[in-house]
Automatic annotation (TrEMBL):
PROSITE patterns, alphabetized: GGDEF
Span of domain GGDEF: 337-467
InterPro entries the record matches: Diguanylate_Cyclase (IPR050469), GGDEF_dom (IPR000160), Nucleotide_cyclase (IPR029787), Rev_trsase/Diguanyl_cyclase (IPR043128)
GO biological process per UniProt: cell adhesion involved in single-species biofilm formation; negative regulation of bacterial-type flagellum-dependent cell motility
Listed GO MF terms: diguanylate cyclase activity
UniProt protein name: GGDEF domain-containing protein
Amino acid sequence: MLSIRGTKQKFSLGLRAADGKETGFYTYDPDSGPAEMRLFAALPEGAAGKTLVLRCAEPEALSAMLSSESVLATQTKLSSYYFRRSLYALVFFLLCVLCAVELGVLMVTMRSIFTPEVQHQTRVMIGLMLDAGIWVLTDSELLALVTDRANLVVFVSLVTFSLTAPFTLEFIRCTVKNDGWLIRLPQMAALVLVAADAAGWLLVGQPMLWLLMPIHITVIASILAAFHTLMVSYKKNHSGEVRNILLAFGLLAAGTLLALATFYSGYRGRIYAVCYCAGLLGFLVMLGRIVLHRIRQVIDEQAQLENYKNLAYVDSLTGLFNYTAFKYMKSRWPERTDWTYIVMDVNWLKQTNDQYGHRAGDELLCCAARCIREAFYRAEDCFRIGGDEFAVIATAADEDAVKAAVEKLRNLCAEWDAKEEYPVSIAVGYAMQAGRTMTADELFMEADAAMYQNKAEIKKAVGGIIR
């Protein structure tokens, strides 16, 4: 493709189509003005991807003209021309791909909390976004700048346009939970047309353009079916989500019907693509908001569930795990053979309650919990299993480490004892499985007995009275 400046030769510019036929559509006459400006003005719709043929009366003169410095190769200019015309398609395609990738990453990273329904809805939304982006790109003239396989581009455009209706209907079906024939019938019809187009491509290597009219009819039928389904669902439960889908689908339907009207009116511009793209963009934006709202609901429900779990397994006063969590850990006993139980009891809790009040007793328990958490490091192994009783479950611990942790606990209690007006003292006993064949209850009873022995020693040392 050439831009001509300053040549004195008269020539014609022809267009050779894929079938070899040539159509003369521009004749250059140097007396008629600058060829460069008139050349672009004369380019017809669909010129991209075709072969432009230059003719003149004297081939030698044309050859000299083409090699002259006054002749500028305009492949770049024509590429820029078509790129500007198709910039909307590129932006739309990249936006769809980016949103689809973000949704995909979100679904993969959070699949453990997604319900099957939300997962399916998200997958359909990803498919719809990619399908819409590919259709807008292949329907534009942009790909003609990078490939001359026009038939393949048209085939992909036809297939992706055909798939828009099934994806949209599937999203509506899984949202309103309607498996009726009114949704399924146009869905299946569109898929049959896609299969027919694919079969034609495989057999003859040509897109089945005669399917365009049936595809458009299927699209119109899908619009009617979707509107009826959404209206029935909204009248039944007045769901805000269904109302939003109805509004979104209204944008898509308006853009689609306007695009079809423009397409069949004989207008040679690309207004039909812009209309459909605008409706599709509004539809995808609103559907994206609906999907994100669903995802946010799932996250909120999961957070609420975790909160309920905390209420079920965490002691509200001390922040340590409670007896329910302790029983759950004990239920996993067969999984390991190296358990160690450390059982603790806070000394003189009753006397503290009687002398200083129950608030002081609660503070004593909280002080004890902080000391236990710090001494045994991992708070997830620490439990409050009764009023003044605590326990720690350790795995793969050697006796020296356990003794060091117990000694650290006593030192921490002594530090708190020096600061508080009421005594902070904890009796401790432990038992290690160390490969012995015994049940969890037997090991716990052994640790509990050791704790009571230590408690008796402490009371004997202080005379059993509070300071």
